Amino acid sequence: MPLTRPSAKRPRSSAPSSARSSVGRVSQKGQQTKQAIVDAALGLATQVGLEGLSIGVLAEVAHMSKSGVFAHFGSREELQISVIHQYFAQFEHDVFYAALSQPRGLPRVQALFANWMKLVAEEIQAGCIFISGAVEFDDRPGPVRDALATSVQIWLGAMNRAVVMARSCGHLRADVNEEQMVFEIHGLILALHYEARFLKKPGSIERANTGFQNILARYGATTVS
Predict the structure, then answer these.
(1) Which of 47, 52, 85, 106 could form a disulfide linkage to 171, CB 3.0–4.6 angstroms apart?
(2) For residue range 130-188, what is the model confidence (pLDDT) as tens digits?
(3) Phi, psi dihedral angles at 218 (to 5 degrees)
(4) How would CATH label the architecture of 77-218?
(5) Cβ-count burial of 156 within 10 angstroms (0-12 exposed, 13-18 middle, 19+ buried)?
(6) How far apart, in whole angstroms, are the C-alpha atoms of residue 216 and residue 225?
(7) In the predicted model, is pLDDT for residue 7 greater than 60?
């Protein structure tokens, strides 16, 4: 758990408690409204991409005024970054944290991939923000690209650590290069998206699962149930 500095003791507010309560309710309502906008933007971005997002289009989808949306997001860039953070939070919850109940080592690597595949199966119809965003922003430096790249790097770093742990547990060969193995696993996901979403080829999910088992076999892993 990261360490946090103790906060300085705040002076007691001289405002009446009713006034403070009213301000708190307004702030909470504002956060709820902002979250609702981000959720709507994420749903829209899976269909039209991050580049397709705009304050005007989102206001129409969210049934709000442009000024109402603009009050929460001062620019389209800020909106896009908020969508990336929201998508990553959901991805982290559904894929990473859901795998932590499994024992360290190969069982956790398998759980991470299984959870990732489950998410991909759902996204084949809608789309993946990480993949579509990479196409849109691969050659466009800036905060949006940085937010996308950081999110992907954090996730691949988690996969990398899981592979290292599997190797240290003796579930993989001692000479396994974790970066190479994660590269190959990531490649399966990218190929699956391309085949299933773009080429509409049947059986893509089964081929991706077979590819993962081939990776485990090649690196000396034994399937752990």
Answers:
(1) 106
(2) 999 999 999 999 999 999 999 999 999 999 999 999 999 999 999 999 999 999 999 99
(3) -65, -35
(4) Orthogonal Bundle (1.10)
(5) middle
(6) 14
(7) no
State the amino acid at position 208 in one-letter form: A
pLDDT of residue 25: 53
Compute the mean pLDDT over every residue in the chain, rounded to the nearest whole number: 86
Burial of 18 (0-12, 13-18, 19+ CB in 10 A): exposed
Examine the pLDDT at 24 and tell me if it is beyond 80. Answer: no
Q: Extract the tokens encoding 91.
A: 């991805």
What is the C-alpha to C-alpha distance for residues 174 and 168, in angstroms, rounded to an integer?
8
- DSSP letter for each residue of the chain: ----PPPPPPPPP-S-HHHHHHHHHHHHHHHHHHHHHHHHHHHHHHHH-GGG--HHHHHHHTT--HHHHHHH-SSHHHHHHHHHHHHHHHHIIIIIGGGTTSPTTHHHHHHHHHHHHHHHHHHHHH--HHHHHHHHHTT--SHHHHHHHHHHHHHHHHHHHHHHHHHHTTSS-TT--HHHHHHHHHHHHHHHHIIIIIS--TTHHHHHHHHHHHHHHHTT-----
Written as six digits, the tokens of 207 are 């081929």
Q: Is the pTM of this model over 0.90?
A: no
Residue 186 class from Cβ within 10 Å (0-12 exposed, 13-18 middle, 19+ buried)?
A: middle
* Domain boundaries of the chain, sorted by first residue: 77-218
The Cα–Cα gap between 150 and 180 comes to 20
The Cα–Cα gap between 157 and 88 comes to 14
